[in-house]
Amino acid sequence: MKVLVNTPIWSYALRSQNKAYQAEIDALVSLIRDQRALLIGSIRQEILSGYSDLQKFETIKEKLSYFENTPILDSDYELAAAFSNQCRKKGIQGSHTDFLICAVAHREKVPIFTADQDFHHYRKVIPIELYKG
User: Fold this and answer.
1) Number of alpha carbons in the 13 Å side-chain half-sphere of residue 51
2) In angstroms, what CA-CA distances link 30 with 23, 52, 99?
3) Most CB within 10 Å of its CB: which of 37, 48, 63, 66?
């Protein structure tokens, strides 16, 4: 099964030296090794936006170039808006990117691997699955 990997997990693997994130890093390495890690363009953008040093930016861009972007369809944007509206109706706020991630994962029928606790709230309202690593 493929897994849509969210920005915080990539950040742990690419930036953090903190051993507290080792389980997440190991899980990502395993997904990559098994060619199960999915990436979408907005997550690629978020990852790369964290590097003002041009050399580091280019290094990370090169590493990420091995991952093809999972396509985002027009219907994903519409579903993301519907998910946002459903959550907002229940008092749960989220970013447009978060709901786009949810929409793509829902369409692709894959879990989301994230450390962002907001997704646990979304899951109470919309049909997404979270990867437990």
Assistant:
1) 16
2) 11, 29, 26
3) 37
Owner of token pair 């090794």: 33
- Percent of the chain whose predicted confidence (pLDDT) is above 70: 100
Q: Extract long-range pairs of 8-15: CB within 8 Å, 24+ residues apart.
A: 8/114, 8/115, 8/116, 9/113, 9/114, 9/115, 10/43, 10/47, 11/47, 11/50, 12/115, 14/47, 14/60, 14/63, 15/50
Is residue 2 classed as helix, strand or coil in its secondary structure?
A: coil
Phi-psi sector, 10: left (phi>0), alpha (psi -120 to 50), beta: alpha
SS3 3: strand
- Tens of pLDDT, residue by residue over 5-56, are 999 999 999 987 889 999 999 999 999 999 999 999 999 999 999 889 999 9
